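Troubleshooting log. The previous run stalled partway through. Resubmitting the same two chains, unchanged.
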Amino acid sequence: MGVVTPRAATSRAATPPKQDRSRATRRRLLESAVACLAERGWSGSTVSVVAEHAGVSRGAAQHHFPTREDLFTAAVEYVAEERSTALRAITPAGRAEAVASLVDLYTGPLFRAALHLWVAASNEPQLGDRVAELEGRVGREAHRMAVELLGADESRPGARETVQGLLDMARGLGLATLLRDDGARRERVVAQWARIVDEALG
Amino acid sequence: MGVVTPRAATSRAATPPKQDRSRATRRRLLESAVACLAERGWSGSTVSVVAEHAGVSRGAAQHHFPTREDLFTAAVEYVAEERSTALRAITPAGRAEAVASLVDLYTGPLFRAALHLWVAASNEPQLGDRVAELEGRVGREAHRMAVELLGADESRPGARETVQGLLDMARGLGLATLLRDDGARRERVVAQWARIVDEALG
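Second attempt completed without errors. Output:
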């Protein structure tokens, strides 16, 4: 594909092309898993459907992810990591912007995919424990980052619960978004609660 | 069944037994629909499954609810009405109790059933519009009751958004409850947010 410059050739020598391809395939499968879950829900998202969406053979997909549960928990973990990376890149100008960024985490196709996985997990014992463990880990990470973005002092009584409640509110706003586009309402709620949280955190 | 007293005989004459039975069957179907949705999700909840759960023939079920969408939107509407009735029966001692009662609306099997319906509706066009309409109606009713229970003065700037954000938080807490029983965490968040809302509403 195109001309290989000496620099690219060196970097390709350091990372074998086969490993590169394998990593790209894995990433494509995870992105397709998220897209399928968000668009078709759990019952419509089999490994075959995801492999086809990713343009990968079923065998190659199973080489990366032996079971459907492996594929989808890895997909949500991947989503969570992408969201953390995106959040880390933010340097909010103030608490209002920090609150808006946190709420944004819970809307869009990434949250939608996670929601489908949670609902499916609540009825699928093989999936339940893994998703609960993953959700606990993701939740702790989101909390840690929220504390940092908001500059919250958790030694103050109530500060921890204020931040937790804010993340719960963000999750509830994401759920409301699932059915109808209520961006205008969401903005008003977020603006008011940014003021309230700012005051509560001192 | 048993001895019919004169009083009962009179009331049965006023309301024909056939209509009574029909109403009881309808109610049993709606309760079974909620139970099936909460336990098995949308894909596992067909009209046949619900009819069997209710101990009703498939034909009788279809007499009441011609389509699957009819049955499940009626079920969520029934749930919403039951919740409204329960809320109306509450006379909270203060705002903290009001907040706790509102949050309770969003946990338990009723919310769980509604959540399954929402997620299914986001992927099923026939269901989507009806559920969005229903959700809008239920949401407005929940808001109206929250304003009343909290004694909020919506003419004050920000009061409306404060109440809305609280209901979004309750929804988010309900979603967190889906995967793991975090009753202790929930109680701490609710206690802190009750204080915050009390102050914000003045």
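Takeaways: Residues 1-12 of chain A have pLDDT under 50 and may be disordered. Chain A has one domain: 17-201.
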